Amino acid sequence: MPELKPTEDTLMGALGIEIIEITPDEVVAEMPVHAATHQPFGLLHGGASVALAETAASVGTFNQIDPETEAAVGLEINANHLRSKADGKVTATAAPLHKGQSTMVWEIRITDEEDALICVSRCTVAIKKRTS
């Protein structure tokens, strides 16, 4: 598996996203629900959920490419926010629906500590040839 670079100075670091597990068929990531991931009304920001979902899909794709010659970049994402959350943590579980040579499509389910579904997302990740 390719090694991820440090995330402290990235969006992952700012939001507190941690990768818990990576396999060819699943990525599990966690994110705290607190001030940094809230919208102004004290609830989990939909954009933070989308960032968590795309992170899981991108990491899953990165795990399956040659990082010396290829890069994984988000191409499209959608999300349905089904339940609000004010504190605690959320867990994203991403599973590939399609593993192609130029794109991968992932389904991401974001749940809370009681396994209640908070958000469901689908993300297409492009696999690009590195130019430098």
From TrEMBL:
GO terms for molecular function: 1,4-dihydroxy-2-naphthoyl-CoA thioesterase activity. Pfam families: 4HBT (PF03061). Belongs to the thioesterase PaaI family. GO terms for cellular component: cytosol. Keywords: Hydrolase. InterPro entries: HotDog_dom_sf (IPR029069), PAAI_dom (IPR003736), Thioestr_dom (IPR006683). Coiled coil: none annotated. The keyword Hydrolase applies. SUPFAM superfamilies: Thioesterase/thiol ester dehydrase-isomerase. Gene3D superfamilies: Hotdog Thioesterase. The keyword Hydrolase applies. Residues 41-119 form the Thioesterase domain. This is Uncharacterized protein (TIGR00369 family).
